[in-house]
Amino acid sequence: MDPRLHAFAKLIVNMATQITRGDNVLIQISDHGHDFALELYKQIIEKGAQPLLVSTPTELVRAFYDIADSKTISTLPRHYYHLIQASDVIINIRSEANTKNLSTVPSHKISARAKTLKPIQEERLSKRWCLTQYPTMGYAQEAAMSFAEYSDFVFSAILIDWEDQLRVMQELKQILDQTDEVRLIGDRTDLIMSIKGRNAVVGGPDNNVPGGEVFTAPIDDSAEGHIYFDLPAIKYGQEVEGITLYFEKGEVVDFSAERNEALLRSMLETDAGARRLGELGIGTNRGITTFTKNILFDEKIGDTIHLALGRAYKECGGTNESAIHWDMIKTMKYTQGSRMIFDGIAVHLSEDGKWVTES
Amino acid sequence: MDPRLHAFAKLIVNMATQITRGDNVLIQISDHGHDFALELYKQIIEKGAQPLLVSTPTELVRAFYDIADSKTISTLPRHYYHLIQASDVIINIRSEANTKNLSTVPSHKISARAKTLKPIQEERLSKRWCLTQYPTMGYAQEAAMSFAEYSDFVFSAILIDWEDQLRVMQELKQILDQTDEVRLIGDRTDLIMSIKGRNAVVGGPDNNVPGGEVFTAPIDDSAEGHIYFDLPAIKYGQEVEGITLYFEKGEVVDFSAERNEALLRSMLETDAGARRLGELGIGTNRGITTFTKNILFDEKIGDTIHLALGRAYKECGGTNESAIHWDMIKTMKYTQGSRMIFDGIAVHLSEDGKWVTES
Q1: Burial of B44 per CB tally in 10 Å (0-12, 13-18, 19+)
Q2: What span, in angstroms and rounded, lies between the C-alpha atoms of B222 and B251?
Q3: B171 vs B161: CA distance, rounded Å
Q4: Helices A118-125 + A107-116 axis angle, to 10
Q5: What residues of A are in contact with residue B57 (Cβ under 8 Å)?
Q6: What digits encode the pLDDT tens for the residues A278-291?
């Protein structure tokens, strides 16, 4: 077993889900991660809680889509629903051997099944839950790294000094909660939006491990200006590169992309809310320095921001509605000239992790 | 994948559990058998049913006993209980990598946990359920075979002509249901017992795969005579070899064993019912020809009988009560001179599978 899995499991059990005596804990994995599940299992039993392991290898998920008729796709697995309902804590460990397992499944089947499983998702989100990831060859390949490199990447992201990271995020939340207007200046970018009266949320390590972002919801009609995203935006396994969005009164009025612009256009046409911002997030986890086409990590990269088109989070006080929520990430390094300006004051995280303001 | 797993899965899905549209099916495995679980999964989805896979590797089970305190051992895992309760069909696949995984766990812990989990067991037995086995290195080692030999052994036992085997078992049930007195004659054996008014049950392929036994419950005070068991009787992973039991008025009045007699003595001293017969079973599965220290297979070996000391099955109309139910198996080959005599008429299964009577 990778010795780092012990500390990883401690983080999940003690900090992210805070397991205590009597908890009914469900651990869900896909292909790999049995050694990590065992380590979690041990620590959960030590707490006096009851663990149960459900494994759904990717080949089983694929078999479902290949074989199930429409009636089966639209039938709720009642036993699974009751399992989720009777659980106190649900730990989902992404551990796929092959991230492209569902690539050739018609998307209408995937969305129909997601709709069927919605009561299960809602039930799950009403519990103490955590989504995390175990390093696999599949994720390493997706990130174009060796497995050893990718394992180092994952543990560098997860095994940071969380007390210090929480301080960094709490301080940023306080700044955002006092801010009315945000201006982002950077490469091919000058965008203003209002977050007045909205609530900034400190992200993790709780529902997401790794955590490392603070996010809020812009006022729907407030965005004015343009922004260029240097990192690819990913949807349905496809990458849209070099996106530029132009905003007027909160709405995207023009756009371009260096590659796969058609997908960007079709996403923007989803509904009215898809042309407005649902999220402004700021990544603070400097344990993550590489973009790996994996939103669980990418949106937390230190010294980045992300904007999402579409649905806003209720917990931020957001009001924008849409069928989509599509994150787009931009590098915002202060040392390379990017600036986040809150009510006229430029704010950045110094190299030693302090928030620095300058008028 | 071993191509025989396809037919194995068909037997489980179509015959043993008769899965139909809308069934909530729980598949449970331990260490191995993921390829078999996938094959089952596919066939279950084809039926329009909803499969879910729970895996509990032996190392996890062991971790529980090593770590759990007494309060944790005596706490019911509520989420697991609700999962079982909401399932229509439960398929348990024995697939252990190491059959000795729990050997050094104090038995009081195992019995305490079994007591805690009793509501789950009872719930499970009220469903359509099936217990079967996947070949592993662990079972091969236990049987002193190579893995290839052991796989052949398992599939020879499971992939027999079940229609013909059901006919053989049904005919034997009819004979037993009309029989008052059974006499067993063989090597160092002459034992008489009554099964008058009792109900013979045809075993499988339903709750057990493989099936291949017909069993009933002797009248409590009827056994008279003696019997020698040429095959080892196994309890708590220990073997007792060469057992001879002497009966008067249904009770064991004397006994001996060629090895491990002390365990036999302590078992007989469990309670009053432990000294009486709870079961007479007749093995009819000629796909099984080898004793492998595995009761799921051993009790169905063709041309054997087994007697159990202790608790009788209610479905046979049995009345004997005990904390134990301990099966002992004896080879009863007609060609080697053994005789089963029902109300004075010797009955045996011919080489071509017909029940032959001779006065």
Answers
A1: buried
A2: 8
A3: 16
A4: 60
A5: 34, 38, 53
A6: 999 999 999 999 99
Q: Tell me the three state secondary structure of residue A96.
A: coil
Contacts of B120 in chain A (CB under 8 A): none
Using the Cα atoms of residue A150, residue A151, residue A154 and residue A156 in order, give the sign of their dihedral: negative
The total number of structural domains in chain A stands at 2
Tokens 């469900």 sit at which residue? A26
- The answer to whether the CB atoms of B83 and A78 lie below 8 A apart is no
Looking at the fold, whether B75 and B211 belong to one and the same domain comes out as no
The string of pLDDT tens digits covering residues B163-187 is 999 999 999 999 999 999 999 999 9
Same domain, B172 and B154: no
Q: Do A46 and A151 belong together in one domain?
A: yes
> B160-164 — which CB contacts under 8 Å span 24+ positions?
B160/B210, B160/B212, B160/B285, B160/B286, B160/B287, B162/B11, B162/B15, B162/B205, B162/B211, B164/B353
Chain A hits for B24, Cβ within 8 Å: 77-80
Q: Locate the chain A residue with the closest alpha carbon to B58.
A: A38
Rounded to whole angstroms, what are the CA distances from B100 to B108, B113, B194, B298? Answer: 17, 18, 39, 18
> Nearest Cα to B295, choosing from B120, B143, B122, B97?
B143
Q: Are residues A172 and A149 located together in one domain of the fold?
A: no
Residue (of A132, A124, A139) closest to A92 by Cα position: A132
Strand order across the beta sheet in which A251-256 lies: A251-256, A243-248, A224-229, A189-194, A181-186, A339-342, A345-349, A355-358
Tell me the per-residue pLDDT of B258-273, one tens digit each, with 9 for 90 and over: 999 999 999 999 999 9
| pLDDT tens, residue by residue, A57-69 | 999 999 999 999 9
> What is the rounded distance in angstroms from the CA atom of residue A86 to the CA atom of residue A76?
16
pLDDT band at A234 (very low <50, low <70, confident <90, very high): very high
| Interstrand relation of A89-94 and A24-29 (parallel, antiparallel or unpaired) | parallel
Q: What are phi and psi of A5, to 5 degrees?
A: -65, -25
Calpha distance A142→A155 (Å, rounded) = 17
Distance from CA of B125 to the nearest CA of A (A): 16
Q: Chain B: which residues have CB within 8 Å of chain A?
A: 21-22, 24, 26, 34, 37-38, 41-42, 45-46, 48-57, 59-60, 63-64, 67-69, 71-72, 75-83, 85-88
Cis peptide before B119 (omega within 30 of 0): no
Q: Do both B220 and B256 map to the same domain?
A: yes
Alpha-carbon gap, residue A220 to A276, rounded angstroms: 6
Question: Which of A19, A38, A45, A124 is the mutation pick for testing B, counting most B CBs within 10 A?
Answer: A45
Residues B146 and B262 in one domain: no
Same-domain status, B146 and B168: no
List Cα–Cα distances, A214 to A177, A203, A279, B192, B225, in angstroms. 11, 6, 10, 81, 82
**Gap between the Cα atoms of B212 and B300, Å rounded:** 5
CB A336 within 8 A of CB A303: no
Kindly state the tokens that stand for A113: 């099944």
Q: Is the separation of the CB atoms in B44 and A75 below 8 Å?
A: no
Q: Is B54's CB within 8 Å of A54's CB?
A: yes
Which of A41, A48, A83 is the closest to B69 by Cβ?
A48
Domain range for A261 is 162-358
Q: Are strands B128-133 and B89-94 parallel, antiparallel or unpaired?
A: parallel
What pLDDT shows up at residue B40?
98
CB A291 within 8 A of CB A307: no
